[in-house]
Design goal:
- This protein is mainly β and 109 residues long.
- It has one domain: Jelly Rolls (Sandwich), CATH 2.60.120.10.
- The protein is built from no helices and nine strands.
- The strands form two sheets. Strands 1-2-9-4-7 form a five-stranded antiparallel β-sheet, with no helix packed on it. Strands 3-8-5-6 form a four-stranded antiparallel β-sheet, with no helix packed on it.
- Strand 5 and strand 6 form a beta hairpin.
- The chain is globular.
Protein backbone atom coordinates (compact mmCIF):
# COMPACT_ATOMS: atom_id res chain seq x y z
CA UNK A 1 0.00 0.00 0.00
CA UNK A 2 1.26 3.44 -0.90
CA UNK A 3 0.14 6.40 1.21
CA UNK A 4 0.81 10.06 0.54
CA UNK A 5 0.30 12.98 2.89
CA UNK A 6 0.03 16.19 0.88
CA UNK A 7 2.26 18.14 3.26
CA UNK A 8 5.14 15.69 2.56
CA UNK A 9 5.01 16.35 -1.20
CA UNK A 10 7.17 19.25 -2.42
CA UNK A 11 5.42 22.26 -3.90
CA UNK A 12 5.46 22.48 -7.69
CA UNK A 13 6.39 25.64 -9.58
CA UNK A 14 3.38 27.12 -11.35
CA UNK A 15 2.41 30.28 -13.15
CA UNK A 16 -0.16 31.21 -10.51
CA UNK A 17 2.23 31.68 -7.59
CA UNK A 18 0.20 29.44 -5.26
CA UNK A 19 0.93 26.22 -3.37
CA UNK A 20 0.44 23.23 -5.70
CA UNK A 21 1.52 19.70 -4.80
CA UNK A 22 1.20 16.86 -7.33
CA UNK A 23 -0.11 13.90 -5.31
CA UNK A 24 -0.54 11.29 -8.04
CA UNK A 25 0.03 10.88 -11.74
CA UNK A 26 -0.56 7.95 -14.06
CA UNK A 27 -1.41 7.46 -17.69
CA UNK A 28 -5.08 7.98 -16.82
CA UNK A 29 -5.25 10.70 -14.18
CA UNK A 30 -3.42 13.55 -12.48
CA UNK A 31 -4.24 14.56 -8.90
CA UNK A 32 -2.99 17.73 -7.24
CA UNK A 33 -3.55 19.63 -4.01
CA UNK A 34 -3.90 23.42 -4.12
CA UNK A 35 -3.78 25.64 -1.07
CA UNK A 36 -5.07 29.17 -1.51
CA UNK A 37 -4.38 31.64 1.26
CA UNK A 38 -6.81 34.55 1.63
CA UNK A 39 -6.60 36.76 -1.46
CA UNK A 40 -4.78 34.18 -3.62
CA UNK A 41 -6.13 32.89 -6.93
CA UNK A 42 -5.55 30.50 -9.79
CA UNK A 43 -5.90 32.71 -12.85
CA UNK A 44 -8.35 31.81 -15.64
CA UNK A 45 -6.96 29.15 -17.97
CA UNK A 46 -8.14 26.16 -19.98
CA UNK A 47 -7.09 22.54 -19.92
CA UNK A 48 -7.39 20.02 -22.78
CA UNK A 49 -8.97 17.46 -20.42
CA UNK A 50 -11.87 17.34 -17.97
CA UNK A 51 -11.14 18.58 -14.46
CA UNK A 52 -12.98 18.37 -11.20
CA UNK A 53 -12.33 20.31 -8.02
CA UNK A 54 -13.19 19.02 -4.56
CA UNK A 55 -13.11 21.58 -1.76
CA UNK A 56 -11.34 20.02 1.22
CA UNK A 57 -11.32 23.05 3.50
CA UNK A 58 -12.53 26.63 3.52
CA UNK A 59 -14.52 28.63 0.99
CA UNK A 60 -13.54 29.15 -2.62
CA UNK A 61 -15.06 31.06 -5.52
CA UNK A 62 -14.99 28.93 -8.66
CA UNK A 63 -15.38 30.36 -12.12
CA UNK A 64 -16.10 28.06 -15.07
CA UNK A 65 -16.83 29.76 -18.37
CA UNK A 66 -19.23 32.59 -17.56
CA UNK A 67 -20.50 30.98 -14.35
CA UNK A 68 -19.14 32.01 -10.95
CA UNK A 69 -20.13 30.45 -7.63
CA UNK A 70 -18.88 30.47 -4.06
CA UNK A 71 -18.52 26.92 -2.73
CA UNK A 72 -17.45 25.43 0.56
CA UNK A 73 -16.02 22.28 2.09
CA UNK A 74 -17.21 18.91 0.76
CA UNK A 75 -18.36 20.32 -2.59
CA UNK A 76 -17.35 18.87 -5.97
CA UNK A 77 -17.30 21.08 -9.07
CA UNK A 78 -16.98 19.74 -12.64
CA UNK A 79 -15.07 21.68 -15.29
CA UNK A 80 -15.27 20.37 -18.87
CA UNK A 81 -12.23 20.33 -21.16
CA UNK A 82 -11.64 23.49 -23.17
CA UNK A 83 -13.72 25.78 -20.93
CA UNK A 84 -11.79 28.49 -19.03
CA UNK A 85 -11.78 28.03 -15.27
CA UNK A 86 -10.34 29.87 -12.26
CA UNK A 87 -10.26 29.62 -8.45
CA UNK A 88 -10.35 32.58 -6.06
CA UNK A 89 -10.02 32.70 -2.29
CA UNK A 90 -12.01 35.81 -1.44
CA UNK A 91 -12.54 34.70 2.16
CA UNK A 92 -10.49 35.20 5.33
CA UNK A 93 -9.89 31.43 5.61
CA UNK A 94 -7.37 29.11 3.96
CA UNK A 95 -8.88 27.06 1.14
CA UNK A 96 -7.58 23.61 0.21
CA UNK A 97 -8.72 22.07 -3.07
CA UNK A 98 -8.17 18.63 -4.59
CA UNK A 99 -7.81 18.90 -8.37
CA UNK A 100 -8.29 15.84 -10.58
CA UNK A 101 -7.56 15.90 -14.34
CA UNK A 102 -8.68 12.98 -16.44
CA UNK A 103 -7.20 11.71 -18.59
CA UNK A 104 -3.79 13.04 -17.61
CA UNK A 105 -2.88 15.99 -19.84
CA UNK A 106 -0.50 14.86 -22.56
CA UNK A 107 -1.29 11.17 -22.11
CA UNK A 108 -1.43 9.11 -25.30
CA UNK A 109 -4.30 6.66 -25.37
Amino acid sequence: MKTICYIDVPEKENGHGVSVRKLHESEFVQVAHIKLNPGEKVNPHTTPVDVFFYILEGICTVEIGTERQQVSKDTLIESPAGIPHALYNESALVSRILVVKTPRPGAKH
